[in-house]
Design a protein that fits this description.
Helix content is about 60%, strand content about 0%. It is mainly α and about 170 residues long. About 25% of the residues have low confidence. Bound molecules: heme C.
Amino acid sequence: MTYKIGISVVLGIYLGLVACNQNTNQNSKPGVDSIKIEAEAGKYRNIDTAEDCAKPTKYPNQDKPMALMMRQMADNAQKMKDKVESGEKIDANEFPLIRFHLVEPTDPNILQPQFYENARLFQQAHKALMSAPANKQKEMYTAYINQCINCHQTYCSGPLKRIRKLVLN
Ligand code: HEC
């Protein structure tokens, strides 16, 4: 009896994995592209919990809400940077906190205590930036971007290159 249950569990997991693979592969054609993507993924494998987070945005319809919010955050940060550099005041009406930690990520394995702690520190930095007086904005913006970098060093190193461009000149 236990033996049978064991078999069906193993079989179930196996079928689940096969189904998953078919699902993720259904759109990819074998060839140069997929080899390149494999190589990229391998490059980050040691440091990334979320290998997928460095993926090219080839199939936008399959992107998870967390990935979409991150893109929005990166666009917003670019606008913040431009304003902060030209001494314009930024505020939370224009740049509200994006609650990415509440939505589905590409890789659910990232949802660890350290991830939520990083999200909390990020949230604090957002608040500090938005309530900073104009003469403190540069400093607080830098602290804010450092929190993007902090989390990405652990959970998703692919976009770090892009994020480093958001650092003040
Ligand atoms: C608490 C951790 C954490 C913080 C803080 C964080 N990120 Fe992310 N970021 C992630 C994770 C995890 C992903 C992968 C999301 C997914 O694929 O579902 C990601 C994905 C991204 C992506 C790639 C999105 C795509 O196209 O797939 C960009 C760009 C990005 N983040 C920029 C930023 C910027 C800019 C900030 C700061 C304003 C930031 N992140 C703050 C964890 C974080």
